[in-house]
Amino acid sequence: MEKWYLMTIVVLIGLTVRWTVSLNPYSGAGKPPMFGDYEAQRHWQEITFNLPVKQWYFNSSDNNLQYWGLDYPPLTAYHSLLCAYVAKFINADWIALHTSRGYESQAHKLFMRSTVLIADLLIYIPAVVLYCCCLKEISTKKKIANVLCILLYPGLILIDYGHFQYNSVSLGFALWGVLGVSCDWDLLGSLAFCLAINYKQMELYHSLPFFCFLLGKCFKKGLKGKGLVLLVKLACTVVASFILCWLPFFTEREQTLQVLRRLFPVDRGLFEDKVANIWCSFNVLLKIKDILPRHIQLIMSFCFTFLSLLPACIKLTLQPSSKGFKFTLVSCALSFFLFSFQVHEKSILLVSLPVCLVLSDIPFMSTWFLLVSTFSMLPLLLKDELLMPSVVTTMAFFIACVTFFSIFEKTSEEELQLKSFSISVRKYLPCFTFLSRIIQYLFLISVTTMVLLTLMTVTLDPPQKLPDLFSVLVCFVSCLNFLFFLVYFNIIIMWDSQNGRNQKKIS
Amino acid sequence: TPTHPHATSEWTLDYPPFFAWFEYILSHVAKYFDQEMLNVHNLNYSSSRTLLFQRFSVIFTDILFVYAVHECCKCIGGKKVGKELTEKPKFILSVLLLWNFGLLIVDHIHFQYNGFLFGLMLLSIARLFQKRHMEGAFLFAVLLHFKHIYLYVAPAYGVYLLRSYCFTANKSDGSIRWNSFSFVRVISLGLVVFLVSALSLGPFLALNQLHQVFSRLFPFKRGLCHAYWAPNFWALYNGLDKVLSVIGLKLKFLDPNKIPKASMTSGLVQQFQHTVLPSVTPLATLICTLIAILPSIFCLWFKPQGPRGFLRCLILCALSSFMFGWHVHEKAILLAILPMSLLSVGKAGDASVFLILTTTGHYSLFPLLFTAPELPIKILLMLLFTIYSISSLKTLFR
Question: Keywords on this record (chain A) (predicted)?
């Protein structure tokens, strides 16, 4: 079949799945007084349209920051403003100041869902298609299958089109950034990534790998000549894009500080709600959130995060390669997710995007990770009554990956990129030959646990004394899985050196 | 579900008895989902559990459809053996049938149980291809008693079975050999049809309600066209009538007082008179339909070409009845589209006809889904199916 027909069909399938998921309820549907993320986005359209820029991030009688105050960088605010203009054109009641609080109607839901679809279609989907087309040493059919599997990833679909958020915008920009930097269009790539950071500050999870990779490239070109030129150009691009985005807020020092205070709420504590990271899981055994004072918690999370990601980043700076860059994105974002401050469960999407990018390299482990990442958001999805779409999209994704990547045949050591690691271990432990078998068993245990927990959460009621039992169990199990993946990805990065120099440069 | 003549609502049973029994079985399963929906007086009742049950029941009964597609793919010979799976005619046929846009939206969104009924029809066609004529006839008889719309294609079945099964041999030039008539086969066919009909209509004959059943099945009071016009000949006829009446009024040929006020375009289901052109009676539509199917029936009788000829005749019967029938639903176009898929992977000429038929037929189904959220779905699904069918058939007949 010709390539374009197949690619169109795959994109259409992705769009169809997205729109059908969007027919389900959104977060906070029919739940006054606070509703949910859907109402937050609508409220931001109201605020940005009706109030002047100077008041967007400040508490005032018109803008009550306790009721979904703006806590994303300026680009989100501009996007909300754009949507508000369209909303005004259709029905001004949707964004009327004060009176439109908690506005819910079929037409409005249609409008909001369309904004997500349009943003997705303009930014994320073209990035995915272009990324897969630029993959090297893969047949056309495999590239198209890759696009299908990435587009079917359940986590992003469920959060963006179910729960209601605009993650596809920031992730799309980040993906453009990865694409640009991998194809040696460094300036465009860094511009795209700056846009991503300015859309959602969580993209900072990806910033270290970008920084190290570009720095490594500059070092390779030689700091006396071309490298320095590149470094200067990159710095100018970054600074210029930040100035452009933050222009209205640079007029006064207080403005900038207030925005920063909204973006990084250090007063809010180590974690909120149940999230599959170390601190929440540790809290089950030992209530560190209450024992340790706030600044100790900050320092502790800072140290753990940076210690865990340092090896990979140093390696990337010294040996910049596209493949290493992608894997470092994964491990960096995962370190941040597991150890950082104020992490939300939706932040796992920041790890899932890089994992989607390495789907063609290590299909088995990537599919496993993406399934766990969707599972880790189960409590959130159940709260939004998204059980049916979650189950269906997860099964569709799993079947697609199994069919197109034959993941169960790719579990040998070499396929898992663990060959050099196991060779090194075998120097000390000659009997270490069963690595792939262990990993297969772990996969089976992991999937069984996830399915069992899902069934239990849906059918049983938790005991009276432990009302959060199932959410905590879900987080705990996911956290264990994520720790395993952190170790695995770091191993791949660190033991890649022997292969990197011997084989041809594989992007 | 009520099986007695009671005007309890506008949605009373108007399918043959087997379908009623089917719904009866469903209702027994339904009570595990939601008791409330079984209350006769609970009209327009909908809850999320009801919805869940209904949708799952359609998906479950589609298993028969999947099996039928499997059987059909077995008996369709490939034109060439492509290297890859996606280029094999069997694969293309199964995608064209299983992902048929019309079936998807009518069954799973608009909501009906056509999946397993078409499964029965495709299965009976497959049995005829496999020369298991008795099974094919039996399945078709059962199908007729599930949904009488399949009467549209009954002539094709009747003529084919008579000509190719009851007359066991042909002369050397292909024409009929009268002395090869097999009484055994005719009688066994008749017996099968009789038994099935007895099973279905027998209880109502005993209860003396046959007349009522027939009047529910063939509601000739319902008018020439359905609320949503099926795109058939009578739609054009009505349109012409309207245009002529408007022109007539403008040019003062007609007296405005004599024109009936109710119009055909109002979207209601009633009987109307035409203003300028002669009014159409059910008998007239029957005669038009018979004239339209005559050529294909003649061909099937005088020049039988085996199961493939039968399939062509079936499609033509379905199309003719669609064009000229009384009170045709636009969903009836599926009766022509699905069998046509079987022919489309055989010859290039058939493939191009199939593409035209299927694209326009599916487009004509658009008004079935009219709410705003469903608009992107129907556009996306239509695009998906159309692009796939065009590209795959083009590749097959490169």
Answer: Endoplasmic reticulum, Glycosyltransferase, Membrane, Signal, Transferase, Transmembrane, Transmembrane helix
More confident residue, B148 or A287: B148
CA pair distance A451, B70, nearest whole angstrom: 31
Burial class (CB in 10 A: 0-12, 13-18, 19+), A402: middle
Burial A156-178 (b: 16+ CB within 10 A, else e): bbbbbbbbbbbbbbbbbbbbbbb
Q: Residue B332 carries which DSSP code?
A: G
Tell me the domain boundaries of chain A.
3-29+104-256+267-495
Asked if the bond preceding A354 is cis, omega within 30° of 0, the reply is: no
**H-type helices in B269-373, by residue range?**
282-302, 306-324, 334-344, 348-364
Q: Residue B373: which of A5, A12, A23 has the nearest Cβ?
A: A23
What is the Cα–Cα distance from B359 to A146, expressed in whole angstroms? 29
Residue A2 touches partner B, C-beta closer than 8 Å: yes
Structure ipTM: 0.85
CB of A5 within 8 Å of a chain B CB? The answer is yes
Kindly list the residues from chain B whose CB atom is less than 8 angstroms away from the CB atom of residue A106.
372-373
Alpha-carbon distance of A144 to A150, in angstroms, equals: 10
For residue B391, give the nearest of A2, A19, A20 by CB distance. A2
Nearest Cα to Cα of residue B341 among B300, B382, B379, B311: B311
- Average pLDDT along chain B: 81
Distance CA A173, CA A152 (A): 19
B-chain residues near A9 (CB < 8 A): 384, 387-388, 391
Lowest mean pLDDT among A76-80, A174-178, A297-301: A297-301
> pLDDT-derived band of residue A500, with 50, 70 and 90 as boundaries?
very low
Helices (H), A23-153: 37-50, 74-90, 106-119, 125-133, 140-151
> 């819910």: which residue's tokens?
A104
Contact A2 B87 (CB under 8 A): no
**Closest-CA residue of chain B to A17:** B377
d(CA A177, CA A480): 31
CB within 8 Å: B387 and A8: yes
Quickly tell me which residue has 């590209």 as its tokens. Answer: B391
Question: If you write DSSP's letter for every residue of B34-58 in order, what string do you get?
Answer: -GGGG-TT-TT---HHHHHHHHHHH
- Alpha-carbon distance A335 to B124, whole Å? 61
Which of residues 99 through 118 in chain A touch B, CB cutoff 8 A? 106-107, 109-110, 113, 117
Rounded CA-CA distance B278/B380 in Å is 42
The set of residues, in sequence order, having a beta carbon less than 8 Å from that of B247 and lying 6+ positions away, is: none
Taking chain A, what is the end-to-end CA distance rounded to the nearest angstrom?
26
Contacts B384 to A, Cβ<8 Å: 9, 12-13, 16
Q: What's chain A's average pLDDT?
A: 87
Q: Residue B392: its chain A contacts at CB < 8 A?
A: 1
Q: Sign of the C-alpha dihedral, residues A173, A177, A182, A188?
A: positive
Tokens of B301: 């009788």
| Unique residue bearing structure tokens 């169809």 | A16
DSSP line for A211-270: HHHHHHHHHHH-TTTHHHHHHHHHHHHHHHHHHHHHGGGSSSHHHHHHHHHHHS-GGG-S
What pLDDT score was predicted for residue B10?
42
Instruction: Test B384 with A9 for CB contact under 8 angstroms.
Output: yes
- Identify the top-confidence range among A263-272, A419-428, A454-463, B32-41: A454-463
- The answer to whether residues A164 and A116 touch, using CB atoms and an 8 Å cutoff, is yes
Cβ atoms B349, B184 nearer than 8 A: no
